[in-house]
Amino acid sequence: MKKLINDVNDVVKDSLLGVEAAHADLVCVDHDNKVVYRVDAPVANKVGIISGGGSGHEPMHGGFVGLGMLDAACAGEVFTSPVPDQMLAATKLVDGGRGVLHIVKNYTGDVMNFDMAAEMASAEGIRVESVLIDDDVAVQDSLYTAGRRGVGLTVLVEKILGAAAEEGKDLDYLVSLAHRLSANGRSMGMALSGCTVPAAGKPSFDLADDEIEVGIGIHGEPGRERRTIGTAAEVAEMLVRPILDDLDYRGSEVIAFVNGMGATPLIELYIMYAEVVKILQAEGIRVVRCLVGNYITSLDMAGCSVTLLKADDEMIHLWDAPVVTAGLRWGR
Amino acid sequence: MKKLINDVNDVVKDSLLGVEAAHADLVCVDHDNKVVYRVDAPVANKVGIISGGGSGHEPMHGGFVGLGMLDAACAGEVFTSPVPDQMLAATKLVDGGRGVLHIVKNYTGDVMNFDMAAEMASAEGIRVESVLIDDDVAVQDSLYTAGRRGVGLTVLVEKILGAAAEEGKDLDYLVSLAHRLSANGRSMGMALSGCTVPAAGKPSFDLADDEIEVGIGIHGEPGRERRTIGTAAEVAEMLVRPILDDLDYRGSEVIAFVNGMGATPLIELYIMYAEVVKILQAEGIRVVRCLVGNYITSLDMAGCSVTLLKADDEMIHLWDAPVVTAGLRWGR
């Protein structure tokens, strides 16, 4: 294993020092609780939005803290859920008096710990609601969770809910919007390589020189099947078709998101995006907004995922709203 | 070789299709000439700024086309200079009547071809000036060039000159500002792995499991030496010390740029950034602005580079000015 780290036990701690040093204009870091939060938290009269999960998916979630997106993010150790105390600390930091929304990706540890944190926060008089993201069409259950995994849609949900909260929407409205987003978004990913968790020291899995894993999650957990790599056009088909089979996108406008898993260069992601658009055009699906790049990664895994969100006018309006975070920024 | 491509001969062509599809609000693509240019080019009464070079360094340069940065970028084949006809086409596309500036990284092919393009443009009545970027302190000469290579500083120069042009500065002023930037910026990089040019099909070099190449360029060309990997703190020292030895930064304010070579995840780049800041603080050098991420890459190479620019008030003002490109965006 070769990595730019000091010690396998200090990866998250040291990385948060860098985040704090680089983005002091946007965020503060509570190092004891490993919570990244907006410099202006809590924002009065705004629902606070937090998320979190295991580290290793950067820029998600810490890189999405700022105006128009998250109020705070809890960083667990690499691929390990944060503990309820971290989530409670984050909840208290961002409570501006209108309640706090937890955005939770569907992994067993995250779900359990966020549930516990919500109970603890309620006991302290903070109203908390949770929304579960489970957009991965690849597998029904997996190594890390029962039910579908939460993957790329998380990025779009955090952006859109963050914008809605910034506009003053209340907690109930945000929960219903989250359900609409969940109902209308699906993802599928693939890997060209495994990823190496620092504490493990070796790749999560090995693939032959011509082999890819289709339907991969974001923790190096197994996908649907191993196949021989094809062209970008064929790989796009392997990712888009299961999404279209799972949800009826005919005649829709979509936000299309081609995400890199961490080690795949941008030049390849743009090739993939072009191929995804070709398939969607042939199906009469209109891409009205897009995102291409490394946003929800899996350490040093090579590969990509595709997320398609059927977007209505409100979602598009909220997508376009200003966002000022380290990982996503426009409009200001 | 496993890559998300259709054909080794179509990598640049196919990727530009993706860029065009993803960023139609910002740029147009002249596919015949492989030129990415601003949707509003030529901008009247503004000096046009173009750059370009071999592909494989994305988001540079095409991802830096837009308001407040480049007016156009020429994409060569992977790690291969664009030809003069491409540069001439770009020059003509962005000439708004106040001349055109060519930002040229110091590689033999780029320098020769941009020179020729400048002559051809002059013959057509367009005033062209060129500025050469050669900020890499690692080696005096290399496989690809005589003199120092142009690396990370290019990103900062494109941002700052782009902002100055947007503010209406004339060609002479931009050339003198470019010289100040060149005089005050230095870079050094390292690699954890080689990179694989699609047409070559195998890595540019192989490193042992515990080995790094220090002083690497952006084309997989050799660096200063191979060493056993150390901690992030030690690697930061290997990169920052030669920069400080080359130029006197004592008492300065700097823009610090920690760049990923393409396959190194953000979590590691932030660890590196924290270590770079520690060294600079100990030397009494104040970081006033920073950039951390994959901006001038080397395909799928793992590794990073550090660039330090001694910045005066004008440079900081121009750094902060709005920029709206696919790769760098703030202020609007």
Brief synopsis:
Two copies of one chain form a homodimer. Chain A has helices at 11-22, 84-94, 108-123, 153-166, 171-184, 232-246, 266-282, 313-320, and strands spanning 27-30, 35-38, 48-55, 72-78, 100-105, 128-133, 185-191, 211-214, 225-228, 253-260, 286-293, 303-310, 323-324, 329-330.
Taking the sheet with the most strands of chain A, its summary is:
6 strands, mixed
Can you tell me the residue ranges of chain A where pLDDT is under 50 for at least 5 consecutive residues?
none
- Average pLDDT confidence of chain A is 97
**Helix and strand composition category of chain A:** alpha/beta
- Strand composition percent of chain A: 15-25%
Rough shape of chain A?
globular
Supply the number of helical segments of chain A. 8
> Largest interface, per-chain counts?
A-B, 64 and 64 residues
Fraction of residues in helix of chain A: 25-40%
Radius of gyration of chain A: 19 Å
Q: Roughly how many Å apart are the termini of chain A?
A: 40 Å
Strand order of the largest sheet of chain A: 1-2-4-3-5-6
- Reading the helices and strands of chain A in chain order gives HEEEEHEHEHHEEEHEHEEHEE
Query: What is the assembly state of the chains in this entry?
Result: homodimer
